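I'll show a sample.
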Amino acid sequence: MEAIHTQGIWIAEALQQITKSQDKLWLIATHIGDPKAAFLLVFPLTYFLNRRTGFAVVWVAAISEWLNLVFKWMLFGERPFWWIGESRLFEKNPPKLQQFASTCETGPGSPSGHAMVTAAVWWVMASSLGSLLYSYTRSMLLSAVPYVLYLLGLVAVGFSRIFILAHFPHQVIAGSLTGFILGVVLSRQVPEGRPLVFFVSSSIGLLLSALLIHSGLTWLGFDLSWSIALAKKWCSHSEWIRLDTAPFSSLTRDCGAILGLGLAQYWKPGGYTLPCAPRALCLALCSMALYHVHRLPLPIQPQPLFYFLFFIKFTIVPQVVMIYVPGFVHLLTHKNKND
């Protein structure tokens, strides 16, 4: 792996040197590809265009991110920003590389979570839009456009992760391929219409199984906190280390989102049926609401409290999109009609 990692460092250096004037575009791409963007950005956008697709986005995002966490625990992948120092191969010829605020993630690096979740979630959107375009136009050319955009977006996210030194190229490729397969498989088995007990059981099952895997690996002698120590050691700015990038943050996010899906469906089976204009208003209001939910500060100590509140935050997200905001808009428009 040393040769692969070394080659990855030189690729990252070349990418930074050639495209250093486009660093803001790479940072935007990495933010769009962040797994939490699937819940906070992609989900509301797709939900108000097509209910099933929006539902599928949350389900696919949660399952693929959970699997990514398990893979990372088992594969022990390095990250470029700490491997450069730990390997001690570049003491005589150090690469000219820059870290960014998004660089210093604390989990293991393989496979790339951004690439894996993006590939899975965006496949749901691309396949849904492609099918819709074909049903209306019967044009293979037009229906292929979403898939081309899917590929271009995935490449952009992958390059952005290499550019900011969060991942090696092979980790991005592995994440993209795995996410594509998951997107194809999971999008065919969306549990829309299942009872609340299914989602409660799924949320608890994902949480307990992850904790069991973590405990089992720890019992076998593996130190699963090794990456956190390295991230803190080699990150150029200590304030760039954030608890919401820790492995258990993604776990609580996924479990909370799945529970939130079940609760939203339980409170209002079938959702609200709204015309185009009210749905556009819902999207605008949801964007503002989720922005404030995301920005809500959480206490980082004690850590169990942080993870519990993080779980609650993402349990609320599907309910905001599927119940609270559409319910408010439905009430508002229904009242105006009566007046």
